[in-house]
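Exercise 7b. C-alpha cells:
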C-alpha cells in the first residue's frame, strides 16, 4: 500500500481544520465590525458623490446634512433599542411601544387642530424641536416617576402603561384628524412619516449634542449591561443595583428616542429590525460588540435605503414606508417564531 493513500484521510482532516485567514477574520466579532464599518463608509461615499450635477459647493453640504441626520438617527434608535431590550430581557419590545411615536403624532395634530396647518409649517424649527422633544421627555419622566415608586412592579407595568397610553394617543389623534380641514390634514399627513430631506442645519447640532450627552451619561453603566441581559434575579445576585441602573438607562432611552423622533419623525419598526439583525450577525452577546454592530447596521439601512428611494424609486415613496414594511413583516415573523418555541 502506498504511503500517500495512508496519509490522505489525515491530510484531508488537517485541511478541513485549517481556516483561511480572511474566513477566521470574518468569524471574529471585531472582524465583522470592521466589515460593517467599511460597508457603511462606502455607502456614505456613494451617497455623497453619485450623479453629482452642478457645483460641488452646492451639492455636498446638502447631501452631507442628510448623511449627518441619518447617522445620528441610526445610532440613537439602534442604541436605545438594544438598551431597552437588555433591561426588559425581551427582543420583541422596542421603545416605540411606550408611546413616543403616538405622542409625537398627537402633538402635531393638536397644533394643527388648535392653530391651523400654517402655524405648524411656519413655526421656527428650533421651537418645534424643543416642543416635541420636551413633551416626549416630560411624558417619559412622568411615566417613570409614577411607575418606579414601588419596587417589583415597575418594568412590565411601564411597558403595559406605555401600550395603553399609546393606544389612547392614537385614538385621540384619529378623532382630531377627522375634525380638521382636509387641506390641513394634507399638511399633517407629511408629518406622519420620517423624512431626511428637510432637516435644518441648526437642529443637527442640537441633536448631536443631545445624543452625545445621553451616550456619555450611559457609559457609567456600560460594564453592567452584560449582567443585566441575564435577567433581574441574576443581576441582583451578582451585585447590580438593578432598579437604579434600569432607571438611569430608561432616561437615556427616552432622551435618545425623543431627540431622533423630534428631528426627523417616527420610524416605528426600525430599532426592532437593526437590533435583531445585530444579534443574529454577531457571534457574541457582549454589548461592546452588539451595540456598535446595531449602530452600523442602522447607518447602513438608512443611507442605503435613502439611496434606493432617491436613485431607484425617484422619490415615489418614502424611506420610513419601506422600513416600516420590512420591520413590520420581521416583527410578525418573530412573534410567530416565539409562539412556536
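Sequence design result:
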Amino acid at each position: 500500500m502506498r504511503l500517500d493513500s495512508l496519509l490522505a484521510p489525515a491530510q484531508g482532516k488537517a485541511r478541513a481544520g485549517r481556516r483561511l485567514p480572511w474566513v477566521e477574520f470574518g468569524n471574529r466579532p471585531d472582524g465583522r465590525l470592521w466589515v460593517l464599518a467599511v460597508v457603511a463608509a462606502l455607502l456614505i461615499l456613494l451617497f455623497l458623490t453619485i450623479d453629482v450635477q452642478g457645483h460641488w459647493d452646492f451639492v455636498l453640504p446638502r447631501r452631507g446634512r442628510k448623511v449627518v441626520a441619518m447617522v445620528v438617527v441610526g445610532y440613537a434608535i439602534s442604541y436605545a433599542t438594544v438598551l431597552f431590550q437588555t433591561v426588559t430581557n425581551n427582543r420583541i419590545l422596542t421603545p416605540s411601544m411606550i408611546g413616543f411615536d403616538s405622542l409625537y403624532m398627537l402633538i402635531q395634530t393638536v397644533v394643527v387642530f388648535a392653530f391651523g396647518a400654517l402655524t405648524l409649517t411656519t413655526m421656527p424649527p428650533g421651537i418645534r424641536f424643543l416642543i416635541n422633544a420636551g413633551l416626549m421627555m416630560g411624558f417619559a419622566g412622568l411615566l417613570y416617576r409614577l411607575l418606579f415608586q414601588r419596587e417589583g412592579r415597575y418594568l412590565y407595568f411601564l411597558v403595559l402603561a406605555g401600550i395603553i397610553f399609546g393606544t389612547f394617543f392614537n385614538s385621540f389623534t384619529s378623532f382630531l384628524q377627522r375634525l380638521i380641514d382636509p387641506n390641513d390634514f394634507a399638511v399633517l399627513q407629511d408629518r406622519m412619516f420620517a423624512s431626511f430631506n428637510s432637516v435644518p442645519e441648526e437642529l443637527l447640532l442640537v441633536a448631536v449634542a443631545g445624543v452625545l450627552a445621553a451616550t456619555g451619561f450611559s457609559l457609567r453603566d456600560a460594564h453592567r449591561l452584560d449582567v443585566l441581559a441575564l435577567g433581574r434575579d441574576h443581576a441582583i445576585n451578582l451585585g447590580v443595583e438593578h432598579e437604579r441602573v434600569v432607571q438611569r438607562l430608561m432616561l437615556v432611552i427616552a432622551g435618545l428616542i425623543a431627540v431622533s423622533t423630534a428631528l426627523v419623525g417616527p420610524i416605528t419598526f426600525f430599532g426592532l429590525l437593526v437590533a435583531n439583525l445585530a444579534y443574529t450577525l454577531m457571534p457574541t452577546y457582549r454589548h461592546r460588540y452588539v451595540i456598535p454592530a446595531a449602530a452600523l447596521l442602522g447607518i447602513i439601512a438608512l443611507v442605503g435605503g435613502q439611496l434606493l428611494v432617491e436613485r431607484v424609486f425617484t422619490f415615489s415613496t418614502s424611506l420610513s414606508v419601506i422600513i416600516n414594511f420590512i420591520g413590520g413583516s420581521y416583527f410578525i415573523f418573530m412573534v410567530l417564531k416565539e409562539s412556536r418555541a
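Instructor comment: The chain has one domain: 65-339. Residues 56-88 form the longest helix (33 residues).
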